[in-house]
Amino acid sequence: MRRTKILATVGPRSIRSGTLERMIRAGANAFRINFSHGTSDEHAMYLDRVRSAARSRGRQLAIVGDVQGPKIRLGTIGAGSVRLIPGQRWVLDSEVNRPGDS
């Protein structure tokens, strides 16, 4: 199991002083930052603190930026809601100003 890696998630609780260093000491090889939550300023702060903790421990660590996959955001649905029935035709329209049946 020598090739096993430990990927630790960085967040508001783990970013506290000394916590990252303890995680590195415990065996973390890489840190994951979830870019789906927080602001760009928070993300930059997480990156800086992970890099600083790695330097203080004399380690080179990977940093993984986790981004959310594709998402479709719907606007107004013509009838307010739609009940989908298997086999029914349903139109998803990208035209913002034209409510359809989606």
UniProtKB/TrEMBL annotation:
Residues 1-89 form the Pyruvate kinase barrel domain. Pathway: Carbohydrate degradation; glycolysis; pyruvate from D-glyceraldehyde 3-phosphate: step 5/5. InterPro entries: Pyr_Knase, Pyrv/PenolPyrv_kinase-like_dom, Pyrv_kinase-like_dom_sf, Pyrv_Knase_brl. Keywords: ATP-binding, Glycolysis, Kinase, Magnesium, Metal-binding, Nucleotide-binding, Pyruvate, Transferase. Its EC number is 2.7.1.40. One of its GO terms (molecular function) is ATP binding. Belongs to the pyruvate kinase family. This is pyruvate kinase. The lineage of its organism: unclassified sequences, metagenomes, ecological metagenomes.
